[in-house]
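Suppose a classmate hands you a notebook page containing two proteins, each written out with its sequence and a corresponding row of structure tokens. How would you begin to make sense of it? This section walks through that situation. The first entry is reproduced here exactly as it would appear on such a page.
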Amino acid sequence: MIGMLISMCILVTMIILIKKGIRTDTPTEPGIWSDTDGSQDEDSREKNRKAKEHTSTALSMSVLYSVIFFLTWTMPFVWMCLVQIHFQAGLDFISDYPVFSFIGQIYLALFLPSQGFLNWIVYLRPRF
């Protein structure tokens, strides 16, 4: 349970760092690829446009990977918390509702393996 919390915190921190790193590394000022007199030629404008496009694409891919992670692992995290409460505190709400247990098992059996498939779909998405 603590390991899942730590991994979620690490993931959120990595997304924030990637977002800040992409935003600071990308040339957004018009003078970065400009001539000495400050005017940009067509080639430098194209490079600036492509850099912005790459930035937004990388940011959207990292957000999609994170959304897939959170959608896939939210229910198992809740399930593991309930099991921990069941064993440590002695509250017997898991076996009181067999439908809840069955739905949880079906969710785990279907959606945990699908995380790899969903990541593959994001990876194959057109990037550049």
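The notebook's second entry, a different protein, reads as follows.
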Amino acid sequence: ARFFEKSQSVFRAELLPLLEGISRDDWASANPGAVSAEHLASTDGWFMLSVVRHGEWNLPLCELAPRSCEMVASRPEISRCSVSNVNLMRLAPGAQLKPHFGNAPRLSAHLSLSVPEPEAAHLRVGAEVATGK
């Protein structure tokens, strides 16, 4: 997690413009299979873009964000795992995700690229709640 925290400025500079500049529908039509089909929020509230899914890299995304992909690939827990998943997610202001859990074993890390209202953003894991600060 510290690696991603220390590298946040690189990820933010390269990935945030992609998330803000491409609509979900445009990305899905240009890159089928790279946009989430999970129903954790309304379609307008949730946008998940795959970087690597089950060990397969999203090459069009990596062409647009080469440094981010290189940094993710440098992590052995990702590059050495044939079922690794790394995703970019955008949650619209005021949107909420339904409570959910992943399959085990699973290592999950969340890195915020932009939190316009940090006091209003919360992440709950079990009984623990963290704000976007």
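A careful reader of the second entry would note: The CA atoms of residues 46 and 61 lie 18 Å apart.
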